[in-house]
Design goal:
about 200 residues; mainly alpha; globular
């Protein structure tokens, strides 16, 4: 009889305790996701983005900031974004990381705002025959986004953002060299930091 009562007491308390434990574990997991750094930055994906920018810069150098020049860089931007998304998804899947939630979402939101601003500013600047200003503006706003997103990622990412801002400032001071500044930035910096990230943080 005593053993029967003990079993009844155990069964009565088991469900609330289990439910509470599940809630606690869920809260702990969500808190860790919010506070953790986004480590699925794809080094080799960044390297591929940099490599794709070099032929685009060479093709665009044949045109003096006209519509064809703009079209080449827009196509390169679409290709680069596609490569980056595929690379991030691949690395996140290998590590079992939810790249669309927690720190991954913070990185994306931090980067999207300045990129959208750069896209919107492109239209009036180009219509005003200020195409030579675009490389500096693009690089500086991209650098701002990388610095902001890098606050939720590995420590080397904000450093890359600062380098982009410096490159953008140089392009604004020397607008005639803007196309080659983008080759050095979107090409060279992505290749350099892509290799660094791949070696330090695994691919």
């Amino acid at each position: 009889m005593r053993e029967h009562r003990i079993r009844r007491l155990r069964s009565a308390f088991r469900r609330p305790v289990d439910a509470s434990a599940v809630d606690d574990l869920r809260f702990i997991r969500q808190t860790m996701e919010r506070s953790a750094a986004f480590t699925a930055v794809p080094g080799w994906g960044m390297f591929a983005v940099g490599v794709s920018a070099l032929p685009a810069a060479w093709l665009a150098s044949h045109y003096a900031f006209d519509l064809r020049w703009l079209g080449i860089w827009i196509c390169e931007a679409v290709l680069a974004i596609s490569l980056a998304i595929v690379a991030i998804q691949s690395k996140a899947a290998r590590r079992g990381l939810p790249w669309t939630s927690g720190p991954g979402r913070k990185v994306a939101l931090s980067l999207i705002a300045p990129v959208v601003a750069a896209a919107l500013l492109t239209v009036p600047l180009f219509r005003s025959n200020l195409g030579s200003v675009l490389p500096g503006m693009w690089m500086m706003l991209y650098g701002v986004g990388v610095i902001a997103g890098g606050a939720f990622s590995v420590s080397v990412v904000p450093v890359m953002g600062v380098c982009f801002m410096l490159g953008g400032a140089a392009a604004l001071l020397l607008p005639a060299m803007g196309n080659w500044a983008m080759a050095g930035g979107f090409g060279g910096l992505h290749i350099l930091f892509g290799i660094l990230i791949a070696r330090r943080y695994g691919g």
